[in-house]
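Researcher: Next entry in the queue.
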Amino acid sequence: MFARNIYAKNMEKRTALITGATSGIGEATARLLAAHGHRIIICGRRGDRLEILQQEFQQLTDVITLQFDVRDKQAVYQAIDSLPAAWQHIDILINNAGNAHGLSPIQDGDEEDWEAMLDINIKGLLYTTKKVVQGMVTRQAGHIVNIGSIAGKEVYQGGNVYCASKFAVDALNKGMLLDLNAYGIKVTAINPGLVATEFSMVRFKGDAERAKKVYEGMQPLKPEDIADIIYFVVTRPAHVNLSDITVLPTAQASATTVRRSLS
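Model: Structure for this entry, 263 residues:
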């Protein structure tokens, strides 16, 4: 805690842009950064949620919102270009926006689900990174945090395209680490296992009973657990980069091995 407080003092003037910030890990991360006084740009599709969060966070720090869908390249570029001059200097990019859609075997897959996962999880990450990283390269400083998944390390039945999209995020993280090394830009992948968010509700298209069973009989990670790790990562001293982290709930040993109680 002592070390964290020292390094946090060096981060007070930094600005972080967070995609997918209206719920789950993104919201928890924005809340934690705001609580520590960092300037935050919270991004998402839901304008009503962005407005509520802005009102909450502005009691703690400087905050601005951008409403766009990461799948829409022009919307991403226009939104980031619209930032006031005082907000153009982005020190930390947290690529959190991502979704899973369906859990069908490949022969029964829904093409719209495939496209949504590839567009959000891969293209959305690329569009946002391309727009933000240009300033980091010019300044030769910055930190990109890509939220991956245990599904980017192991394939599981029915996860075909979702896993492929997260394997792509893993590869992109490694590629960014190489490409941006010459500019002193840090790149980090954080790959969570089971986290209790809206993830399963989205995957199962609002089927609450099916979504509930994902976490039944075990204690999943909370969004705040991942936010705490993100905060730790981005507050390390300049010479330290945690490049690839996999974090699981204690009850989970792999993508498919989960200890569940019988009660």
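Model: The CA atoms of residues 99 and 117 lie 6 Å apart.
Researcher: Noted, moving on.
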